[in-house]
Amino acid sequence: PILMIFSKSATMAKTHVFTVTVAAVMLSAPCAGYTINAARARGGMRRCARRAAEPCMDGKAELADFGLGVGQKYGPTAPAHPMEKPWSNVLTQEGVQIVKAASNDLRDPLVSDMANEEIFVSKDSIHILKHHGSYMQQNRDLKKKAEREKSYQFMLRLKVPCGEVPGPLFRELDELSNKYGQGDLRATTRQAFQLHGVLKGDLKAVVSTIANVGSHTYGGCGDINRNLMTPAVHFPNNAAYMYCQKYSKALADLFKPMSSAFNEIWLDGEKAATVEYWQKDIEEFKLDEVRTYDNGNGIITGHPVEPIYGRTYLPKKFKIAFTVPGDNGVDLYINDIGCVVIMEADGETLAGFNIVVGGGMGRTHRKEATFARAADHLGFVKKDDFFEAMKAIIATQRDHGNREVRSSARLKYLVHTLGINDFRSLVEQYLGKPIEPWVPLPAWKYLDWMGWHDQGDGKLMLGINVEQGRVRDTPELRIKTCLRTLVDNYGVDLLLTPSQSIVLRNIEPAHKYNVEAVLREHGVKLIHEVDAITRKSIACPSFPLCGLAMAEAERVQPQINARLNAKLREMGMANDDFVTRTTGCPNGCARPYMAEIAFVGSGPNTYQLWLGGSPAQAERTGQATSIFKMKFDDLEKTVEPIFAMWKSQRNAPDEALGDFCHRVGIATVEEFMETYELGSFKTMPSPFAPAALPAPDSSIGISAQVLAKLQEEASARDMDAASLLEMIVSEALEG
């Protein structure tokens, strides 16, 4: 065997080759200032003694072992089933894989870093800490480097399957955010809460408190399965929706890290005082047995701690969502795995699940090898085969996902590279049986479950809009205090939605108007008071704490919404709306590439424009336009020609903006934009404008003030005042 050691010098790179005898083949390649070596052998494994991912010193090389763990039989350097692809994961792996391999099952160097007096953790610990549910951040609003270096803080992200946040948990989070955080909470686009502004010295107190009240942060981030999504509803008597929640919780448990590192670091090696509140719903599945069951086809790695993940877990983050036919409030097609509940004809018995694979949003500007992707239809899996099928997909990504290039590590790149048919064949080898054909489904709808709904068990639920998910108190809107009041006085529980809003559940009918009064008292609008564009918009946090942010997102989304609404009204399109999203960078945390119109940060106060996503968020992404640096101040002049073309050329009064742009093509839209003169919409015919009324045969007295308002609202809807007045009066009389 050959041991190749690549050394990095300050003046030049030298390569020395030595012939040595070793227990396993050790190959290496330089990567971003680190020397990476692979140890791979089916029969025996030599573990490298040196710590992985140490910077190369002048004239020296550090050995790094990213091979299989002791006792492990299958993994990225030894797939259970071979498959040709452009990467092998044997000769080289990117730096985060090295850090995980050296972490001793997610312990090191975090244990020592948490014990020192620094206000930050090391570069390697940043990656390990993510698996424990936390990101290290700095306040980028501080312009002086010295000030930023004193602003190290940590964000904690909970793992709450289905977005379920019981009242007692919210009460604890409210207290923790006030005592240790920045006084607010943030609902994420994956139905979890984030708590910002925690100092390193307080991390243990916060994490342990969350764990001891029956929740946790383990797996909120990192290269493992993330928070499980389901529609934000509570229908105890609806079997399909209940199966969504039950199996979502089951996968959250099945694919959790099995390392005891979390308890050792944050709970002093003890068990949490309270079992996770969702465990009672999944006891029937006996998931400890499911997790270790070996079908003999290479799913189980042989690793003594992580039977499914193995030593280095997954190549990158992994996302799963569940829903029922027709309800696409979860953005099913952006997930690594999407599961659709399929019922038997009786409507009560679970038949199995339709499965989609290979969705994902993350990309990099101007790097075509990275892209947003809508998931493909894998097929149907019967109920009895479901857990093994999910394990098989995880094992396929574990063994074959790209660990050489981190920007290409998500499952979507593996599915794209192999094609859905070869990917399906590979999964079937791990599963040991064929995936059945996809069961036809009804059309998708984007449902957000805002407003009042009957739960079906004698209680009510109420969806309230939370702009960009920020739960805080301001002089005008005291939503954080409002939620705490409802939890304390009316015993409500929370469901976080995929659109960053909140559904209050388990409301007694007798309390309905009291709840509404509390909302009004704290400035919280009921959904009929929220415009449709604001209701459908989401944004990532971006500045000041995200280290990847290029432009503002959360802090400007309300302005964007208001300006889009104003432009629509000016153009007589006040009755039109669409899904719009904004992100501060191309990583896509707010799912911009599925929106009908999206603004993706490309630099300070500039955005790349995307168009053409489905209004139902189904089966396709939008497309990038050639507008890469739209100035924030140019928003109106950019969207006006798009709206004018949509208004004058749509083929039906209800053709959505995204469907229109997709139908005519982005190139055609851009051609129209090039020749359009601002203000031209005023002379363009509107093929679906309401017909004007015939000459009036009677008159009615009306004040000048009301008439002026009537004319304003009529113009915003491309109507004349008489037509709008007749419509209002007719609806009032009929209602």
Describe it for me?
This protein is an alpha+beta fold. Helices cover 29% and strands 16% of the residues. A hairpin with a 4-residue loop joins strand 1 and strand 2. Helix 20 (704-716) crosses helix 21. The longest helix has 16 residues, at 239-254. It is globular, with a radius of gyration of 27 Å. Mean pLDDT is 91; it is low at 1-61.
Would you tell me the overall average pLDDT?
91
Rg over C-alpha atoms, rounded to the nearest angstrom: 27 Å
User: Uncertain runs with pLDDT below 50, 5 residues or more?
Assistant: 1-61
Structural class: alpha+beta
Number of helices: 21
Question: What helical percentage do the residues reach?
Answer: 25-40%
N-to-C span: 85 Å
> What characterizes the major β-sheet?
6 strands, mixed
| Strand element count | 24
What portion of residues belong to β-strands? 15-25%
Shape: globular
Quickly describe the structure:
The chain is of the alpha+beta class and 735 residues long.
What are its keywords?
6-stranded mixed beta sheet, 735 residues, 21 helices, 5-stranded antiparallel beta sheet, alpha+beta
SSE map:
Layout: E1 2-8, E2 13-19, E3 25-31, E4 34-40, H1 95-101, H2 110-115, H3 123-131, E5 134-137, H4 145-148, E6 153-157, E7 164-165, H5 167-179, E8 185-187, E9 193-198, H6 203-212, H7 239-254, H8 261-266, H9 287-292, E10 320-323, E11 337-343, E12 350-357, E13 376-382, H10 386-400, H11 411-418, H12 420-431, E14 451-454, E15 460-464, E16 470-471, H13 479-490, E17 493-496, E18 502-507, H14 512-521, H15 532-536, E19 538-539, H16 557-570, E20 580-583, E21 597-603, E22 606-611, E23 623-624, E24 630-631, H17 635-649, H18 657-664, H19 666-675, H20 704-716, H21 721-734
Parallel strand pairs: 10-11, 19-20, 20-21
Antiparallel strand pairs: 1-2, 3-4, 5-6, 6-9, 7-17, 8-9, 8-16, 11-12, 12-13, 14-15, 15-18, 17-18, 21-22, 22-23, 22-24
Helix pairs in contact: 5-13, 10-12, 11-12, 13-14, 16-17, 17-19, 20-21
